[in-house]
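Open question from group meeting: does this chain pack into something compact, or does most of it stay loose? Before anyone orders reagents, we agreed to write out a predicted structure and look at it together. Recording both the input and the output here so the notebook holds the full record.
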Amino acid sequence: MGGRRLKNRETMGVESVAPSPPPPRSEGKTALLQNPRITFALALLFADALLVTLIIAFVPWWALCLLSLSKRVHSIFVLRLFNDCVAMTLLHAALLLLVHRRWNLGLIVFR
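Structure tokens returned:
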């Protein structure tokens, strides 16, 4: 039990040190999810990861190679992409017209 014993608090330097304020509380993971763009991006990443996992689990590797080499499947896929853009634009236009109570024009665009 060697060593010196301090006589009073002043020799320990306790009174000379000002108490520091507590560190600011970080909101942690919840602050990241407050931004809707980040939340949406995380949801898309999760959906992509799930889709890739399902493809790897249920589709053999040689089938994926054949699908990527097939010109017919590629052309159908590309045509479908362009067709979906036009169809969704017309659907949005029809919904906008129906919301603004332009029934006749909305139904013509929807048709």
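Observations to bring back to the group:
The first helix runs from residue 9 to 12.
The helical segments are 9-12, 29-33, 36-58, 61-69, 71-99, 103-110.
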